[in-house]
Give the backbone structure.
Amino acid sequence: MRLTLHIWRQKNAQAQGSMVKYEIGDVNPDMSFLEMLDVLNWDLIGKGEEPVAFDHDCREGICGSCSMMINGVAHGPQPATATCQLHMRHFKDGDTIYIEPWRSRAFPVIKDLVVDRSALDRIIQAGGYISVSTGSAPEANAVLVPKRNADLAMDAAACIGCGACVAACPNGSAALFTSAKISHLALLPQGQPEHETRVLRMVAAMDKQGFGNCTMHRECEAVCPKEISTGFIARMNREYLRASFRVGK
Ligand code: SF4
Ligand code: FES
């Protein structure tokens, strides 16, 4: 396959970026999107040019690093697919592809396609944990978890923290991410001791990090590579209201 790529190039956080056009040949349809970018980078390095910087790690859909807009869609055209698991067979010979970093106030561009997503980490730091007593682990079968809750908690825990939900949201909201992180703990007995302080602190951290408010456009759900449901946002809002009343806010 031959492709024309338009890629956002930006030297550093302060520099002004622009789209740069590249022609690339010898793209195998079985390559992943990141492998296609590797081929481009080998070519650029061979010509003594600066390779395109992009985030990646696991390349198997579990770390959430491979964040980029492909033709204006977070993670590209395939539903429920992270960029690293998107294959070139979903494009046609001769296609033109536009590749950009996440665009959101809370995710400043560091270089080319790499953005700073540490704002998501700061939401987790505010409350995305449980307290555990020291000593030997309790007998697992002694803590009963209803099947429905176990399944829902597992669905929420599938969030890989990629930030596509934020990038796709017209408000730049991190509500889907935050609600997934709150819900997977709040649904389990182990998450109960802090469930009120957790939702209050994580929502406050989300607001402080500069994310927008959720007004239910549901773009987040449409691009999420792990199909996290906006139902978790409703759950988070319920938890937040209940906790706010309890502490008299
Ligand atoms: S909710 Fe989905 S889109 Fe948002 S960070 Fe988690 S996995 Fe990525
Ligand atoms: S590189 Fe880890 S999810 Fe894509």
Remarks:
- The first strand starts at residue 3 and ends at 9.
- Helices lie at 33-46, 118-127, 147-157, 164-168, 175-186, 195-208, 219-223, 231-246.
